[in-house]
Design brief:
The structure holds two protein chains of two kinds. Helices cover 47% and strands 19% of the residues of chain A. Chain A has 16 helices and 14 strands. In chain A, helix 7 (190-219) packs antiparallel against helix 14. Chain A is flat and about 85 Å long. Chain A starts with 5 loop residues before the first strand and ends in a 5-residue tail after the last helix. In chain A, 46% of the residues are buried. By secondary structure, chain B is of the alpha+beta class. In chain B, the strands form five sheets. In chain B, strands 1, 2, 6, 7, 8, 9 and 20 form a seven-stranded mixed sheet that branches. In chain B, helix 2 (57-66) packs across helix 12. Classes of the chains: A alpha/beta, B alpha+beta.
């Protein structure tokens, strides 16, 4: 299909050594040639070559950037269309300027995910791969990258395929009793159905439980830091941000203030909320913010509560502890370089299940323990080293949830004494829904199963 | 030498189960119809098992009846036994099966044809078609007769270039040593039809007098009067039983020892056989762990001693067949009358057909039955009636009748064939239907009678009766929704008798009927209808209410897909232009030329992503037709 030419910045926003602006579509080369000055025009360059040169703003005839330009002619490209990748200096300003130039000269700004959409529409990748790639693009940390990679490579597909096979065998057993009522296959009793259904439901449940993690890996675990003034919130923030490379993002349309920062803490992507607020207020004398804290705790999936070891536990501290009850929280007893005036046993008592870490952020002590506590909270049990086939895509989550519901309905119907062929309707539905996750729903497989599993016929 | 044989509206080639339904439907619709068969004694012949119906198939027979066809009525008059299968399961999968008296079945059908107005039955082997400008004009027989017609239906069964294989022996033959039809197959290939070669088989027949039935299990018919046709009022009560016995280790080693003499394994057979109807040698090779296989002994009629040995389909040499038979309990002294054999035949690749069963290559030419790659009398008859109806409709310049997958098993069958093709003889199974709760045995008239009436196949009388039945069901369902039943001693006694929980509060009658233990009879006790309902009306009321939730669920699915069914694709769409569709899918779509997006989505090798692209493409086409400037690509992720 013929589409117009689109362009977008394809490296993450933020500081980096290089930035890439990518074009895709029939006019990619002509547009780039309007701006490019090198040894030869790009139109003469062979495909899959990288060409050194400069970008000129044709309006003012001024050199804008020193660049390396990749020429990639379709169909052997990601989108199967002609593509151009302009490698320029990193940093928001210069990349933006290149993008602007390209847009002024005939390209259209790509919608989010539009390159992948084209790859899909041009028949380069299938739907589930397309979705995996979308997540890959949005992946915030290495681990999230792995999840996305696995999805592309079909780890999830494999797991779902296994589940489907279970269901298929069950359905085939029901079917054989229906289509060959006199055949001496043992009747698929409701009893058997119940056992099998229960096992499948549990498996789907397990997958869905990873969904939460998958989502966090992709979107980041929203994290808030609360505590009384001057306990070291800002130091904690800085420590997390400096220890770990932060990705700073603006939220468009609000203020120019940086309000969220991403950090990767031992594989756990933290989305630190209201960082501007912390930095700003800590500079001044902070107003007592129980209300504000309450609001923050509501937004955060992980709450870091900071108290000062140098002062006895105050009423306010305890109020903050109460706020975090039932939340994933870590209590940070800071300033252990100073005199110990807090009743640590009492803190631990109030903290209950919530981990307590003592630190001196000033002297950079205890940060390891803190990071370990964060990691431990997220990757409970065997999840981390175990299966990496997290479900991280919301369409998949919805389908899995529906599949589970269908299995549930089948089980209920079986309980109520519905005939087995009615119960089967929902089992088949579950099988189809799981098929939709991996984009496979060929009806013929049931027939194949039937004849592979049973010796039928006259 | 040739001569002008006459002019007709419709010519039907063949008088097997597809041919007779095609000819009868066409003639009953008022079309002048000629039915040609190469052997008048083989009209509605059952070359394999003497039975009609079973799961899915039995429902097809009822569908044929609702459309005004003959199979149901004919078997009702000529069976030796009838049973309702799957009675322990839900209503969706119940199905009738009858054992036929294969001889009276044929006689009865032939006589019906002879008595039908507008229908001429004649012996003659069709060897060629008359085709002008891509449209069929008639047929030429072996004896030189040229018959002209608006439309032609070919139903050649396993006769088309048939070849019988029996051990080391093989020869050109139709079923049961009848003459094969050879030239027509070559003519079809010359006209550009792609053919495939299929194989099927039949077991030996034995003399019932030589069977020791005491070593077998009796399989009697139901002791309730049953009938396939909604119209049948007279029931056969005198039934013959079938008998069940099993193969054993001795049978299996005999077969294993002689496998090298089996044409299936010596490479003599080139045709593809059906998985659902494997020969006994196939079963033993593929499922060698199974210690025994079932053998059903089925009488072939009332006036014969021949017994069909179901389960022992084979093409092993005759001498091995004798020995295999004698290894089976009850058959130790059996006298074989005819050996089993395999038969190969030509079929056309059915994706060359439109859903009306008209060929895409030659307009006015229809094919039905085994030539389309199916197997089974019922599958043949179901296609036959549709091809007959559509051939007559075409001759009358009317639009074709196409049943969709939510309307009939016949719709599922034809859609599967023309959309997916088949790489083995195709048999209907209930599992092929995605809406089987809607495609029930009991509601075939509700699904199809109206269509049969519109086509002119249902009498006004019958239509009236049907409309009344519909009204009675509706009225009773409405009444039950309003009838409130308060728990008292009598009510709770009924509940206790039914084995269901006591009622604590007043409930509507339809709510109570939804309890699995409660039948309509219980409800009629609690709140008697103004007039006692006929059993088939009561049955409909019960099913409608009881399975309301599930029926609604399936209806929802149907409605969801209706959008896709209604999105039509131009017949001449050039798929090769649509780059976004995978190359293989483009080829498949070009071949099948689906009429709707839903049909396209069922073409094998076409993925959901191809369909998304197709939708975008069709949508774009629409946009461009209505507005000049280039439109933006619709988003789809």
């Amino acid at each position: 299909m013929d589409f117009d030419t689109i362009a977008a910045i394809s490296t993450p926003m933020g500081e980096g050594a290089i930035g890439i602006v990518r074009l895709s579509g029939g006019d990619s080369l002509p547009i780039a040639d309007k701006l490019y000055k090198g040894k030869h025009p790009l139109a003469q360059a062979s495909t899959h070559t990288i060409n050194y040169g400069h970008l000129i703003d044709p309006d003012v005839n001024e050199t804008v950037e020193e660049v390396m330009v990749s020429v990639l002619r379709g169909p052997k490209t990601y989108t199967k269309e002609d593509m151009v990748e302009i490698n320029c200096h990193g940093g928001i300003t210069s990349v933006n300027r290149v993008l602007q130039l390209v847009l002024n000269n005939g390209a259209r700004l790509a919608e989010p995910g539009e390159f992948t959409k084209r790859a899909f529409l041009n028949g380069r990748i299938d739907l589930s791969q397309a979705e995996g790639v979308m997540d890959l693009i949005q992946a915030k940390t290495e681990r999230a990258m792995n999840v996305a990679m696995n999805q592309v490579e079909g780890k999830l597909a494999e797991r779902i395929q296994r589940l489907r096979q279970e269901l298929l065998e069950t359905v085939a057993h029901v079917e054989v009793n229906i289509d060959y009522p006199e055949f001496d296959a043992e009747e698929m009793t409701l009893e058997v159905l119940r056992t099998k259904g229960g096992a499948v439901r549990e498996d789907i449940d397990r997958l869905l439980r990873t969904a939460h993690q998958g989502k966090i890996l992709r979107e980041g675990l929203s994290t808030v830091i609360i505590g009384r003034p001057n306990v070291g919130k800002s130091s904690l923030l800085n420590s997390l941000v400096h220890e770990n490379k932060a990705i700073v993002t603006d939220i468009p349309g609000t203020t120019r203030d940086v309000v969220e920062e991403y950090v990767n803490v031992r594989g756990v992507p933290l989305r630190l909320l209201d960082t501007a607020g912390i930095r700003e207020t800590e500079d001044k004398v902070e107003r007592i913010g129980v209300e504000r804290s309450r609001k923050l705790v509501g937004e955060g999936e992980l709450v870091l509560v900071v108290v000062n070891q140098n002062e006895p536990l105050t009423e306010e501290d305890q109020e903050l502890f109460r706020l975090t009850e039932g939340h994933d929280a870590i209590i940070i007893v800071n300033k252990n370089d100073l005199e110990d005036r807090i009743d640590l046993a009492r803190v631990k008592e109030i903290a209950g299940d919530r981990p307590v870490v003592t630190t001196s952020l000033l002297e950079d002590r205890g940060v390891d323990e803190l990071e370990e506590a964060i990691r431990g909270l997220f990757f409970e049990g065997d999840l981390e080293t175990g299966d990496m086939s997290y479900v991280s895509n919301s369409r998949h989550i919805a389908l899995l949830t529906d599949a589970k519901k269908a299995v549930d309905e089948a089980m209920t119907a079986a309980e109520e004494g519905m005939p087995v062929d009615m119960v089967q309707i929902d089992i088949t539905k579950a099988w189809e829904l799981l098929g939709e996750v991996i984009g496979d729903q060929v009806n013929e497989s049931l027939i194949d199963q039937l004849f592979a599993q049973f010796c039928l016929g006259k | 030498m040739s001569y002008h044989g006459g002019e007709f509206d419709v010519i039907v080639v063949g008088a097997g189960h597809a041919g007779v339904e095609a000819g009868l439907a066409s003639a009953r619709m008022g079309a002048d119809t000629l039915m040609l068969t190469l052997n008048l004694d083989a009209v509605a012949f059952m070359p394999c098992n003497p039975s009609v119906g079973g799961p899915a198939k039995g429902i097809v027979v009822r569908e044929i009846d609702a459309l005004g066809g003959e199979m149901a009525r004919n078997i009702d008059k000529t069976h030796i036994q009838m049973r309702m299968l799957n009675t322990g399961k839900g209503p969706a999968v119940r199905a009738l099966r009858a054992q036929a008296d294969k001889f009276t079945y044929q006689q009865e059908m032939k006589e019906t044809i002879e008595d039908t107005e507008n229908l001429i039955l004649r012996q003659g082997m069709v060897e060629d078609l008359i085709v002008e400008n891509g449209a069929v004009r008639g047929v030429i027989t072996q004896t030189g007769a040229k018959y002209y017609a608006e439309t032609v239906v070919i139903t050649t069964g396993t006769y088309l270039r048939g070849k019988v294989i029996l051990g080391e022996l093989s020869y050109e033959s139709g079923p049961n040593n009848m003459q094969p039809s050879v030239n027509l197959s070559y003519r079809l290939q010359e006209m550009g039809f792609e053919m495939e070669r299929f194989k099927t088989g039949t077991p030996p027949r034995v003399n019932g007098n030589s069977i020791d039935y005491s070593k077998t299990e009796k399989q009697p018919g139901d002791d309730v009067a049953r009938a396939f046709s909604f119209e049948t009022t007279e029931y056969i009560t005198d039934q013959l039983p079938c008998w069940l016995t099993y193969t054993n280790e001795e049978t299996h080693s005999l077969i294993n020892d002689n496998l090298q003499r089996s044409p299936m394994y010596s490479g003599m057979v080139e045709g593809t056989g059906p998985r659902y109807c494997p020969s006994i040698e196939d079963k033993i090779v593929r499922f060698h762990d199974k210690p025994r296989h079932q053998i059903f002994l089925e009488p072939e009629g009332r006036s014969t001693k021949e017994v069909y040995v179901q389960g022992l389909s084979t093409s092993l040499p005759e001498d091995v067949q004798h020995r295999i038979l004698k290894s089976v309990p009850g058959l130790e002294n059996v006298r074989m009358m005819r050996p089993g054999y395999a038969i190969e035949y030509d079929a056309i690749v059915p994706t060359q057909l439109w859903p009306s069963l008209e060929t895409k290559k030659i307009s006015g030419l229809f094919t039905a039955g085994q030539i389309n790659g199916t197997s089974g009398y019922e599958e043949a008859a179901g296609q036959g009636i549709m091809a007959g109806i559509n051939a007559a409709l075409a001759a009358q310049n009317r639009d074709p009748l196409i049943l969709d997958r939510s309307e009939a098993y016949i719709g599922v069958l034809i859609d599967d064939l023309v959309t997916k093709g088949t790489n083995e003889p195709y048999r209907l199974l209930t599992s092929r239907a995605e809406y089987r709760l809607l495609l029930r045995h009991d509601n075939a008239d509700f699904r199809l009678l109206e269509k049969g009436y519109q086509a002119g196949l249902i009498s006004n009388d019958r239509y009236e009766r049907f409309k009344n039945k519909e009204k009675e069901i509706d009225a009773e369902v409405q009444r039950l929704r309003k009838a409130v039943i308060k728990p008292d001693e009598t009510v709770n006694q009924v509940m206790a008798d039914a084995g269901t929980a006591q009622m604590k509060e007043a409930l509507a009658a339809d709510v109570i009927l939804k309890r699995p233990e409660i039948s309509y009879e219980h409800i009629a006790q609690l709140t008697p209808p103004p007039k006692t309902l006929a059993p088939e009306v009561a049955e409909q009321v019960e099913i409608t209410v009881k399975y309301e939730g599930y029926i609604a669920k399936q209806m929802e699915q149907v409605d969801k897909l209706k959008n896709m069914e209604n999105k039509k694709i131009p017949e001449n769409l050039d798929y090769m232009q649509i780059n976004g569709i995978a190359y293989e899918a483009r080829q498949k779509l070009s071949e099948v030329r689906p009429l709707s997006v839903a049909q396209a989505s069922r073409v094998s090798g076409v993925n959901p992503s191809d369909i998304s692209v197709l939708l975008v493409y069709l949508e774009q086409g629409n946009l461009q037709r209505t507005s000049e400037p280039e439109t933006e690509t619709p988003a789809s992720n």
